[in-house]
Each structure stands twice: as structure tokens, then as C-alpha cells.
């Protein structure tokens, strides 16, 4: 890769190894930023606005080649900024791999992200969709982040409130979509763990592992086992985790569905609303395990679409369209994609 003004760059870059779906796509130009300065100097040089900002490529459905520039964020570093008797404030470069950071936290006995073990992707993209699993979302351990605002050509620090976190949502997927580059995230982790095992599957797995003394390492091990048993490993089968969000519908709508569809799964989601398990809906509609050539719906978790090797992004997109229209017809529910379609 050529180095231009300290920023690595490559023309005609193959992105197939840079997205966990393993989808084919060529970028006209790939620029790699390894520091905050790389990010600001990229924009200062009046480069065109990047067509795509890439982290770990784990929440992306690439359906085409990319004209223009892909800016890949590979900023490293894990630094303790401050400690109190209860908390440790850890600043992490956006390019660190999320799961490696989780393992680092566990090794240092910093609690709060053990339930988020093995989530693919990088630290810098984790806040964009407020990653969550097994009863925990990163907003619960988030302190602040640093981001470069493209329109204003400057860095700004965003607090918890400014990020406007919601279920798989943040300001970076809405108002600031394609306008901000996250360069680091600071977490407020706990020195005294507050174990969160309320997700049934964790309790069961801890029992199966014969765990007597609960620890963050034990919870992480349980989560890793559960994920490995249900979710395909992107290194072996291309995927981007949950393809759709779990839809939130009105309680009255849910009650109507309950009468018609025995066993439908939903959880209270605030006053008068229910969050429905999209995996259940998709399975009930007959898609679970469905394979069309070299892509399909995972056979152990219907919320995950997979590329068995050689599929094209628009084929997977078409399958997702078919799923959305079927779910609309059968349940009158509008599924929303969680992945970013490019
Ligand atoms: N279910 C089915 N069939 C399926 C899949 C699920 O009936 O094919 C039912 C299950 O039996 C269960 C319910 O749906 O009763 C929920 O399933 P699960 O616990 O697997 O969780 P999920 O709601 O499908 C969400 C997250 C996952 C996260 C898990 C565990 C979303 C969109 N997905 O999935 O996140 O790992 O909870 O906390 O919220 C991701 O975002 O990439 C991801 C994997």
C-alpha cells in the first residue's frame, strides 16, 4: 500500500476481505487512517467526502462497487484515563477490535462489557448502533467519544446524552449519518462487577458449565458458548449478525397476533408497546434454514442471513426484500434492516 502524506492509500482496492459478509466489491480508492491526525489531515487536504467510512465491516451489506474513496479507520490504543474506587475510565481507539477489548477488560477485572463478548466489529462502530446482547447495551458503560465532524472540520467530544442512544440506534445513524468519523470511545467500567445474568440462556449455560463462583470471565465464557452455538462464525460463513431489528409494535396489535399465532415471542418495550422477536416471525414464515444457491437464512437463528461463499450483495438484498414483504403480509409488521446497505 502506498503512503501519501503519512496516510496509507490503495487504488482499486478489493473490499471482499473487509466486510464480514465476504461480499465482492471494489473501491476506487481505499485510505487507511491510523491516527486522529490522519483523519483530520485527510479532510484538510480537501479530499472529497468519503463514499464510505469503514470500521470492522461487520454491519454492512455491500451491493455494488464504490466510486470514490473508502476511509478505513484503524486507530489503535487502550489507555486508562482515570480511576476511582468504583470505576475505571478507559479510552479506546476506534480501530481496536471490539472482542479483543472485551478480553482486555476481563483480564484487568474491569466489568460491564462481559455480556457483549464476541460481537464482531470495532470499538469505533460499536456506539453507532449501540451494540447490545444478553441484556446489556454499550450505552450502559459509555462515558464519551471523540468524533471528527466533517461539515465543521473539527473534532468534538460527545457525551452520553449527545449520542441519543436507542435500541440499535444513535445520532450517528440519523442526523450525523455520513457526517462524523468516530476516532475514540471512552468507557466507564466497573471495578465492582454488577453481574447481569437475567437473560435465561446465560443462567442455563452457567449451570451447564458447573460455575460455582460467578465472575465476569464466567459470564463471558457462557456468552461465547451461546453465541458460538447459535450464530455463524463470519470467518467460516459470511454474515453480519442480526440482519433485521426486532420490531416494536403496539400492545393491542401484539395481543391480536397472540390469538392467531400460538407461541409468538415478545417483550414489553415501554408503555403500550411490545418488542417482537423477529427471528420467531421469520422462522414461523418458513424462512429458517432456507438456502438459495450460495446464500440463505441461517438454520439456527433466522435473524441472520448468510453468504455460504460466492453470493452477491444484491442477491442477499433481494432475499431480505422477500422476507420483509412476507412478514408484512402475514403479521402486518414492517421489518427494518439493522445492517447498512450500500
Ligand atoms: N427465535 C426463534 N427463532 C429464531 C430465532 C429466535 O423463535 O430463528 C426466538 C427465540 O426462541 C427467543 C427469541 O426469538 O425466544 C429471541 O431470540 P434470541 O435470544 O436469539 O435473540 P434475538 O432477539 O433474536 C437479539 C439481538 C442479538 C443478540 C441477542 C441476544 C437484535 C436485532 N438482535 O437477537 O444481536 O445477540 O438478542 O441478546 O436485537 C446482532 O445485533 O447482530 C445480534 C446478534
Offer a quick outline of the entry.
The chain has 342 residues and is of the alpha+beta class. The chain has seven helices and 21 strands.
Give a verbal description of the structure.
This protein has 342 residues and is an alpha+beta fold. It has three domains: 2-73, 2-Layer Sandwich (Uridine Diphospho-n-acetylenolpyruvylglucosamine Reductase, domain 2), CATH 3.30.43.10; 78-190, Uridine Diphospho-n-acetylenolpyruvylglucosamine Reductase, domain 3 (2-Layer Sandwich), CATH 3.30.465.10; 238-341, UDP-N-acetylenolpyruvoylglucosamine reductase, C-terminal domain (Uridine Diphospho-n-acetylenolpyruvylglucosamine Reductase, domain 1), CATH 3.90.78.10. The protein is 23% helix and 28% strand. It is built from seven helices and 21 strands. It has helices at residues 36-44, 98-107, 200-208, 216-230, 251-260, 278-284, 313-331; strands spanning 2-4, 7-14, 26-33, 52-54, 60-61, 66-73, 78-83, 87-93, 132-133, 136-137, 142-149, 154-159, 180-190, 238-239, 248-250, 266-268, 273-276, 291-292, 295-297, 305-307, 340-341. A five-stranded mixed sheet has the order 1-2-3-6-4. Strands 7-8-13-11-12 form a five-stranded antiparallel sheet, covered by helices on one side. A hairpin with a 4-residue loop joins strand 11 and strand 12 (154-159). Helix 3 crosses helix 4. The chain is globular. The two termini are 25 Å apart. Bound molecules: uridine-diphosphate-2(N-acetylglucosaminyl) butyric acid.
SSE inventory with pairings:
Layout: E1 2-4, E2 7-14, E3 26-33, H1 36-44, E4 52-54, E5 60-61, E6 66-73, E7 78-83, E8 87-93, H2 98-107, E9 132-133, E10 136-137, E11 142-149, E12 154-159, E13 180-190, H3 200-208, H4 216-230, E14 238-239, E15 248-250, H5 251-260, E16 266-268, E17 273-276, H6 278-284, E18 291-292, E19 295-297, E20 305-307, H7 313-331, E21 340-341
Parallel strand pairs: 3-6, 4-6, 5-21
Antiparallel strand pairs: 1-2, 2-3, 7-8, 8-13, 9-10, 11-12, 11-13, 14-20, 15-17, 16-17, 18-19, 19-20
Bound molecules: uridine-diphosphate-2(N-acetylglucosaminyl) butyric acid (EPU).
Uridine-diphosphate-2(N-acetylglucosaminyl) butyric acid is lined by residues 133-134, 231, 241-242, 245-246, 265, 277, 279-280, 283, 288, 301-303, 338.
Amino acid at each position: 500500500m502506498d503512503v501519501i502524506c503519512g496516510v496509507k492509500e490503495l487504488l482499486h482496492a478489493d473490499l471482499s476481505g473487509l466486510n464480514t459478509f465476504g461480499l465482492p466489491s471494489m473501491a476506487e480508492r481505499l485510505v487507511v487512517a491510523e491516527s486522529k491526525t490522519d483523519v483530520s489531515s485527510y479532510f484538510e487536504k480537501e479530499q472529497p467526502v468519503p463514499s464510505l467510512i469503514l470500521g470492522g465491516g461487520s454491519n454492512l451489506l455491500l451491493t455494488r462497487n464504490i466510486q470514490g474513496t473508502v476511509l478505513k479507520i484503524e486507530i489503535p490504543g487502550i489507555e486508562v484515563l482515570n480511576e476511582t474506587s468504583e470505576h475505571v475510565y478507559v479510552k479506546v481507539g476506534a480501530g481496536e477490535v471490539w472482542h479483543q477489548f472485551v478480553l482486555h477488560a476481563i483480564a484487568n477485572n474491569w466489568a460491564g462489557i462481559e455480556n457483549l463478548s464476541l460481537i464482531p466489529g470495532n470499538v469505533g462502530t460499536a456506539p453507532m448502533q449501540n451494540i447490545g446482547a444478553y441484556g446489556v447495551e454499550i450505552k450502559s458503560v459509555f462515558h464519551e467519544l471523540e468524533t471528527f465532524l466533517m461539515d465543521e472540520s473539527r473534532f468534538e467530544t460527545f457525551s452520553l446524552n449527545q449520542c441519543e442512544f436507542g435500541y440499535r440506534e444513535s445520532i450517528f445513524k440519523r442526523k450525523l449519518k455520513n457526517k462524523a468519523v468516530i476516532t475514540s470511545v471512552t468507557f466507564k467500567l466497573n471495578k465492582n462487577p454488577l453481574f447481569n445474568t437475567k437473560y435465561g440462556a446465560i443462567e442455563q449455560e452457567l449451570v451447564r458449565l458447573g460455575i460455582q463462583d460467578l465472575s465476569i470471565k464466567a459470564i463471558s465464557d457462557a456468552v461465547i458458548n451461546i453465541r458460538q452455538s447459535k450464530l455463524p462464525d463470519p470467518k467460516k460463513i459470511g454474515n453480519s449478525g442480526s440482519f433485521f431489528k426486532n420490531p416494536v409494535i403496539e400492545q393491542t396489535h401484539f395481543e391480536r397476533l397472540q390469538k392467531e399465532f400460538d407461541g409468538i415471542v415478545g417483550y414489553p418495550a415501554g408503555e403500550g408497546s411490545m418488542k417482537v422477536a423477529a427471528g420467531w416471525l421469520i422462522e414461523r414464515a418458513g424462512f429458517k434454514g432456507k438456502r438459495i444457491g450460495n446464500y440463505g437464512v441461517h438454520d439456527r437463528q433466522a435473524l441472520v442471513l448468510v453468504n455460504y461463499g460466492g453470493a452477491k450483495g444484491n442477491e442477499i438484498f433481494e432475499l431480505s426484500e422477500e422476507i420483509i414483504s412476507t412478514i408484512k403480509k402475514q403479521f402486518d409488521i414492517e421489518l427494518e434492516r439493522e445492517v447498512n446497505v450500500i
